[in-house]
Design brief:
With 308 residues, the chain is an alpha+beta fold. The protein has one domain: Nitrilase/N-carbamoyl-D-aminoacid amidohydrolase (4-Layer Sandwich). It contains 5 helices and 17 strands. The chain has a 6-stranded mixed beta sheet. Strands 8-9-10-12-15-16 form a 6-stranded mixed beta sheet, covered by helices on one side.
Length: 308
Amino acid sequence: MNDTPQTLRAALVQHAASEELARNLATADAGVREAAASGARLVLLQELHPSRYFCQAQRVETFDLAEPIPGPTTQHLGRLAAELGLVIVTTLFERRAAGIYHNTAVVLDSDGSLAGTYRKMHIPDDPGFHEKFYFTPGDQGFRPIDTSLGPLGVLVCWDQWYPEAARLMALAGARLLLYPTAIGWHPPDADDEKTRQREAWIAVQRGHAVANHLPLLACNRVGHEPDPNGGPGIDFWGSSFACGPQGELLGQAPDDAPEVLVVDLPLGRTEELRRIWPFLRDRRIDAYADLLHRYRDPESQPGKDPQA
């Protein structure tokens, strides 16, 4: 592993998406350049940034958007990363083989090389988020991607609700957690329900930062995207944010406008915190076998240890 900084300036590029792929790429490029001008060495783009969030509808022709990795977009981002001397993280619609497609995070290192990939492990299938139609679950496990800035724990959107994913990245040596995201409101929902959803999204990720003593970046898209089938569409709630290893908010974008959010991440505090709050040391790994079950029915769990 390369020498890594104790403080890292990072940026999140939150923007609305249009139907024009070239326009989306140009918007992301401009955001990366703005971030570089502010001194950022790491830039996180939103989930599936080259296009609109196409999973609102199940359409076979949408598979034409997929591309191989390496491919045109990774080559483009690699050139941009090398030109600006920074690391870029985003996700793409990967065509792995005929009939096998993934939602895949890619990491372009500061020399322009493809440092690694992570295929989204948790795939949702909810109203307006029909991802199981498009994406095969990932098969690479939860392994950080080594870069010139150190190992990055890259996860994708729906993964952010699962503490197991963040923990496994931490146990494998990640120095920070990154979540490119596409999440928003169902427009007919009541305002109080919308508030609860957004606050839950922020809270669960801040909890991952606390439980693992790692800084965290979450980059979401923003703006309304119509449903191709004529439904209400999705109001993406933006709110991209960064927090430190105690869950403290370091910066947050608005819920209704684009922003290039630049923050300084205190990577060096992880060691300090793990010495005084040794969560990893005190894990009862001998008692967690039930986590390997989908669910344990109450009647299958005796009230006391039969060996007692």
